[in-house]
Amino acid sequence: MIKSSFILKVNTKNLISNYNFFKNIRNNTIVAPTIKANAYGLGDKKIFNLLRNNGCKNFFVATLEEGINLNNKDKNINIFVLNGIQNNHLNLFTQNNLVPIINTNLELNKVLKKNIRFGMHIDTGINRLGMN
Average model confidence (pLDDT) for the chain? Predict the structure, then answer.
């Protein structure tokens, strides 16, 4: 049996350069990196802090737990949670400065009753998540 190992090196300067490329395409462009699944193995807190320190103000994560893990205290930074309100823990969204992405009419009615910020996911035909 052959054993092998490898090391993945991520050039953070290139990551910042890529972020700036998209940010500078046009004035007022909003760039929102997705850092779900531990930033795809790169380290969610590391990538979050790196991009935040370079001017990024909007991020996406998959779950409420991932959002809480980032420990965002800055009200100018938006962390959007793609999987919706997840078990109705709406107070956790406001306590942790997180914005749920609404996927159903049921979720929409719940956030409207609580008067919290939210985003909307529209089903574009893939039929996974999102409102019709």
Answer: 90
